[in-house]
Write a structure and sequence with these properties.
heterodimer; A: alpha/beta; Rossmann fold; 6 domains; nine-stranded mixed sheet; eight-stranded mixed sheet; globular; B: about 325 residues; alpha/beta; TIM Barrel; eight-stranded parallel sheet; two-stranded antiparallel ribbon; 12 helices
Chain lengths: ~1200, ~325
Amino acid sequence: MDRKKVTIDGNEAAAYVAFHTNEVIAIYPITPSSNMAEWCDAWAAENKTNIWGNTPSISELQSEGGASGSVHGALQTGSLTTTFTASQGLLLMIPNMFKIAGELTSTVFHVSARSVAASALSIFGDHSDVMATRSTGWGLLSSNSVQEVMDFALIAQAATLEARVPFIHFFDGFRTSHEVAKIEQLTTSDMKAMIDQELVFAHRKRALTPDNPFVRGTAQNPDVYFQGRETVNPFYIAAPDIVQKQMDKFAELTGRQYHLFDYFGAPDAEKVIVLMGSGAEAVEETVEYLTEKGEKVGVLKVRLYRPFSLKHFINALPKTVKVIGVLDRTKEPGASGEPLYLDVVNAITETFNDGELPFDFPKIYGGRYGLSSKEFTPAMIKAVYDELGKPKPKKHFTIGIKEDVTNSSIDFDPSFSVENPDTFKGKFYGLGADGTVGANKNSIKIIGEGTDFHAQGYFVYDSKKSGSMTISHLRFGPKKIKASYLINRANFVACHQTVFLETTDMLRDAVEGAAFLLNTPASKEEVWDTLPEKVQRDLIDKKMKLFIIDAYKVANETGMGGRINSIMQTCFFAISKILPKDTAIDMIKKAIQKTYGSKGEKIVQMNFDSVDKTLDNLYEVEVPSEITSKYNIREAVPADAPDFIRNVTGQIIAGFGDDVPVSAMPIDGTFPSGTTKYEKRNIALEVPVWDSEICIQCNKCVLICPHSSIRAKIYKPDELDKAPATFKSMPYKSKEHGENLLYSLQVAVEDCTGCGLCVEFCPVKNKREVRLKAINMEPQLPIRETERVNWDFFLNIPEWDRTDIKPNSVKDSQFMEPLFEFSGACSGCGETPYVKLVSQLYGDRAIIANATGCSSIYGGNLPTTPWTKNKEGRGPAWSNSLFEDNAEFGFGFKLSVDQFNEQACNLLVKLREKIGADLVDALLNADQKDEMGIIEQRGRVAELRAKLDELQAAAKDEDEKFDYLNLASIADYLVKKSVWIMGGDGWAYDIGYGGLDHVLASGKNVNVLVLDTEVYSNTGGQASKSTPRAAVAKFAAAGKPAAKKDLAMMAMSYGNVYVAKVAMGANDAHTVRAFIEAEAYDGPSLIIAYSHCIAHGIDMGTATRNQKAAVDSGYWQLFRYNPDLVEQGKNPFVLDSKGLKIPVKDFAYMETRFRMLTKTHPEAAAKLMDEAQEDVQSRWKLYENMASMPGSSNS
Amino acid sequence: MDLTTTYLGMKLKNPVVPSAGPISQEVSSIKALEDAGAGAVVLYSLFEEQIEQESLANFHYTTMHNESHPESTTFFPEYVEYKSGPDEYLELIRKAKEATDIPIIASLNGASLGGWVKYAHNMEEAGADALELNIYKIATDFNTNGREIEQLYIDIVKEVKKNIKIPLAVKLSPFFSSTAWMADQLDRAGADGLVLFNRFYQPDIDLENLEVVPNVLLSTPMAMRLPLRWIGILYGRVECDLAATSGIYSEKDVIKTIMVGAKVTQMMSSILKFGPNHISDVLAKIRFWMEANEYNSISDMRGSMSYMNVGDPSQYERANYMKVISSVKL
């Protein structure tokens, strides 16, 4: 049968089969598996059907725990059911997995295997998660490539129905889940042929139904539980043969024959590597190369890891094997070996014990590789084979890193390569927003589907959400591509952004004769002198070809703006000559039509125009023979940065993180605060420039700046004595803080992301030229150097005395130093202004629990982190535990804080006479309600410490000495701490709601900040229960049918929780006031903060308008519920906004998330918008009624 | 009493036609206009910006942050079925046709030669009886001369005409150096009717916020004088039909426009002000006036006061101005 060739990624391949062979799908987003669920949701929204002609039911749950519960339920009631997950999500499914397996239920979970968070979270691929499920009784089937993902998804589905053992079908997160490859697509007939309908009926027949009632899920006692557990044994014994039978059946259908263990290599191999996952592809590629050189090596690819079939394993090994190296992509600290290694040892030993080993007992060595998608290359694989050939190989080795603490690592020669010279290998450096990755995905499709070539694409992104660099790795060639690793020998390098020249060594991996395509505004005559010295040297030494294009010029001329994707793609085809020029252009245009056809004719035409204009603007530049450059690629961090920053952080920023040795890494995940300031990213083309002539010194720009790149200070005139000539200053207009003070507003132009929110939020217009405000965007480059100097000078102006600042005014609050700066958040982020405000008001005594999500990524993703400290060395202590338990995590902080405070107070009472009654009484009775109180208490604690030192030195009694030491260790807790629990709506409304509810109900003094973007922003915009009705989101592709959950109302129902709903862009004074009241309230506080987001599909630079419209429409009410008012006989609920000024649609249709539904489901859009208006009106009425209630009735 | 008229080759029961405006956004309103007696309805305008800019904006905002971060390579669901054009407009045409028996004239509004003009074909397919093309060019470019602007109008008309078989009316602005020449050119380019004139929404200044803001003002009866003059001048000298619009409030306004040569009279501000039943009022008063003044049919009066038929054509020319002054008694 002639099957369609498709160029898709691993997630789509798995989702394709899962969708076609299931009836119910329960989903929840988690990287890197989310796309599988997204595909299914989108297909269902289009009413696509499974192989039985039905559209599977797709339901998003509140967590993976919830998803697995629903899966369990749907399975028990007879539906063919599946889900998709990874990492922590899989761990949350484990309780149900035990049940599902215990009940011998047929199902397949598709898992894009990912690291489990330990000392740090990582979204990348390894087998830590699937290995953690080994005891659940599930089958584990491993796919190594995108083709195998599609094939094994079906084999697993067929096998589970027959075996009644549930299966995890897993593949490597990112490396396989996100690799785009050309594969053969299975047909509906294939799937029908593999799925035995009788077995489907049998599955249904086992279902719970009142028409044939029985009980399943009993509680058992010591007498029979054990026996019950042993009943399943025959099924596990039979399962491997069943899987092999299905593999054989599959081979008959498709010609692709798989085995439980597939051996590849020399028939007489003596050294065999055993492993599973994508790494096996690279080992196979290496073995092919080495055996051609005569080496006796081989690889055994494990397909079915559980149930582990000893028989099949032993039979698959060559009889000549002498040494086995077992590679595990996981780490099990404290174990006698990693799991696969132990299984292999056991298999060999048991078979040997039975006298059935068909070869001499081999030496077996285990090693770890590839954790968190660490590169696993032929060079490393060769090193493993070499190690296995040594008389005494390393035991429990590591490969791919420098492990210089216990010296487990094996050295490798990075210059070793086995890549086929006929394979084209291209690396493309682009920006997220410039369309590079999208264009490359298109190119792979063009080549994959338009030629007989094999094609592979893999995409690497950096960890920042704004201005992030993407590197596309593309391989094409006549031979099957098994290289499951990044390109490190490129014969084509493209730089899509000129700015990368000064930051990134792009030609490091270029081979001799390679082509370098550069997007540059420089002419072909001038371009040479614009290149850094290293680039010039590589071009000359490697005899490279240089091509240039001014892609932005072409894009502007054709209306494409910043999207240069089609232009650079055309250049690539023109230079690479993979296809004849005209064929390539024709295929590019067809791809454009296919990709953009449904988006609008204008878009297609603009892309066509840009393609047509490209070749006229593409030039080959003859590479001169001499280096003329006067600059080089700049250092990642300043030379005077601290050692750790230079040796570790700087290496990571520069792209050399793989070279950081184990000894340089923190042992327990502890990193220094305040490192973003060393990473001068210079990503803004335009930055704000202050016009002191018309500034009214309101500090609104400082407040709204998402990256803390605009700061204001007041100071005495003598501070200006050594000011740089261009440093701007003006008299401070207010007398509140003294006479004759000066005021400066300073921009960190190297840290600014250029969002423009400050300009939008500035309330002043230049009366002579109204387009100008008191702060205006201007090109960064001309002022970069002067403003760098000004910024440094500004930082050295002393911070104003916090005790003299009245924080409840917007203006004064912004004289407080932010202790959260230059995060990697999106340009124009709606969350970070709130986060920064917390850091300004309470940062020097804040301890912060941060739920996983955007805020934990921009708050804690390496290489640099934004939480910082002040000159006294104080600042927010920050940690991210998990997604689902952040409220509880922060609650734990509070328990410690209270416990230590109580112990300290008790010790003060106990030691009152020794320490001195006056000091002790002052410490115990301190009023810490304001900044002055805090600072005075810190002074007392310092005094106490000095006294304790003195007493301890003089103490003779050990118990007494202990008391002094004990009190000294916790004395800081006598100063009030501010516990903050923050995270997004996915956490607060969904996965973490149970815990949040419990913590709010506890009555403890914790402050909860919900950064409400109304979607799971971090994982790409999936719907949460906060998503408004009528908006589209992933998992709500047909529009969110239900109203947004009223979290505030639920919290207010306790009566003793301070609750505020704020929107800084709509009312900044209200926001500041609510934060201060929340923190001052001696009990739990909940602030729900409207956070505009790129997932709303809006202009982030003017997003405060959206906030204002949200409030004006009454959709987002501003209010405060302060239980303290009850004691004063007042109504605790104050409605602070005047809503219903505009219809909801006037707000909603400013945003693509709502508008989009009118394009995809117009009738539903109209209906849902009407309902959304009704929601707003009824909620508004309720809130109005609450606000109008007299105080006495509330109290 | 015969109030029937023809317009763009269609027979209308009377010459009162609501012009493009917000009232025709809902089928129920269109039905109300028919019930009030409207001879035909020109639907609200579909703008070039709606067709092109909206799809560009949606594309921009749904893709601009794609492929920037490994966890979130996209932010919106992938839709295969995506209506990039304003399909609700086509749906309105379909529903209006189903709900009414009068001609439904779709309105397309733009100012450049682009892919949007092909949308005329979709309107025809959706069932529109005719199309009114509103060309709305604000010539702000110092490097573009008047002749180029004129040619652009002509080219747009030709391009639209290529895409449809239904009749085409062109609504144009009064700001041409030679309105007569322009009308002739558009007539030759294929226009089946000319609607005189469109009224540009002029911006206003918000003194509070120092912003230039759109501010829609309803037209006043004063505005009628301009179409009155030009229909009078063009009547009988171009082949295509003429329609009057702007500032038409009363039955007398309607009668005047017909007397200068209009096939139909379009009104909107008065309907917005007084409601759809204003049409029935106006129609009743027309009948009353015709009876009182012994006119049996609309066609009897059409063009009777036009440039061609009025005794002294200078009334339509600059001399008119002088006469006004001289007639003022100081």
